[in-house]
Design a protein that fits this description.
The complex is a heterotetramer, with 2 copies of chain A and 2 copies of chain C. By secondary structure, chain A is an alpha+beta fold. Chain A has 3 helices and 5 strands; from the N terminus they run E-H-E-H-H-E-E-E. Chain A has helices spanning about 10-15, 30-40, 45-50, and strands at about 5, 20, 55-60, 60-65, 75-80. A 5-stranded mixed beta sheet of chain A has the order 2-1-5-3-4. In chain A, strand 3 (about 55-60) and strand 4 form a beta hairpin. The longest helix of chain A has 9 residues, at about 30-40. Chain C contains 4 helices and 8 strands. Chain C has helices at about 15-20, 50-70, 100-115, 135-140, and strands at about 1-5, 25-35, 40-50, 70-80, 80, 85-95, 120-125, 125-130. Chain C has one domain (about 1-140): Aldehyde Oxidoreductase, domain 3 (Alpha-Beta Complex). In chain C, helix 2 (about 50-70) packs antiparallel against helix 3 (about 100-115). The mean pLDDT of chain C is about 95. By secondary structure, chain C is an alpha+beta fold. In chain C, strand 7 and strand 8 form a beta hairpin. Classes of the chains: A alpha+beta, C alpha+beta. Chains in contact: A-D, B-C, C-D. The interface between C and D is medium-sized, with 30 and 30 residues. Strand 2 of chain C pairs antiparallel with strand 2 (about 25-35) of chain D, so a sheet runs across the interface.
Amino acid sequence: MTLAMLYFAWVRETIGTGAETVDPPVDVATVAQLIDWLSDRSPAHAEALADRGRLRAAVDQRFVPLDATIDGAREVAIFPPVTGG
Amino acid sequence: MTLAMLYFAWVRETIGTGAETVDPPVDVATVAQLIDWLSDRSPAHAEALADRGRLRAAVDQRFVPLDATIDGAREVAIFPPVTGG
Amino acid sequence: MIRAVVQSEPIDLAATLAAVEGSGSGAVASFSGFVREDDGVRELALEHYPGMTEAVLHGLAEEAVARWQLHAVAVVHRVGPMAPGERIVLVATAAPHRHAALEACAFLIDRLKTDAPFWKRERREEGARWVAARDRDAGAAERWR
Amino acid sequence: MIRAVVQSEPIDLAATLAAVEGSGSGAVASFSGFVREDDGVRELALEHYPGMTEAVLHGLAEEAVARWQLHAVAVVHRVGPMAPGERIVLVATAAPHRHAALEACAFLIDRLKTDAPFWKRERREEGARWVAARDRDAGAAERWR
């Protein structure tokens, strides 16, 4: 499964990129499992993704809880809580 | 007691003037009594002031109920309910 | 800054909002009331009680400043004849927080409608008439007391 | 009319309000949020999620139109670097009644703060930091659900 990953704000800064294409194994079924799997890609990924309580996610441009499925997803974004307005 | 009377909206139109100076006798103590007394000034006054339920008043530029005193008043205004904004 | 004005000239939205925004606040809200274009009114004329009107508007503005810690407030009300689509009234508030700014606008327009001595006369095809006061306006003002 | 825009250029208040007022409604309300001038921020930079942001803002605008029978609504949010005193966001609503216009503005700004993917980074004398989300914003958005 090929996924377009997007990172924003300090998640993007810490990882060092705002976008990458990844190909997780089929047993990666939820956003949380994807975060676990991404954490092994680099020390920067591990650092950015360490504190789950500070992370939010969107699957195909809709906010989802971290236990949401990524089945069929094309684009997954990981970022801190939003602060617009 | 010399009073500056002011009339607004249809009260003014019906009476035919927006301002007049009047000199009611001392036993005219409240706005309601003043309205009674004013009603005798002309048929136009009587018509304009006939329906108390549609009249509001201000004494020296403060809204008051019709049973308020006019003791010490300099300016009394009579008008319909307000409709600004 | 408190600005409470009654005028026969058209209301300058940009200048009024710029003055309120000049307070450097984080939140600015505004409300404008217009002569409706869709209900057959050809002209609306506003009469008021000179002197009392300005005092009432200023008093309401001061009350709003105290109650919502506003940094700036403007209340501008037009009088005289107006065409459909023209601005009758503008209230604008600047506050540290968004809810304060928006609530203060609601307070000002609700209370202005019952406390300020204005009278509307509308001209329609079938003739002119003085607009009647609405009970629901009294209810809306009551919630701020 | 629904206008939902994300832009790096300064927000044109007059043009946006004129578009909303052009609906011919009796009531128009607006809310603007600014970079505060009084708390030591030298620059505020807004990042967003292109595509999702516009969709969320448009969806909130549509929800407001349906809920308050708005005649027109505009939501304009700036992104990129901004100086103190600059406008970050503008929401404006046109409705038949004043409470609808003001409530819809409150709804839009409350929900935008929790539902739209923007992130603020502020630069102060002591350095730059990403602004933390506030629990009270979640509470403010919750009242509209």
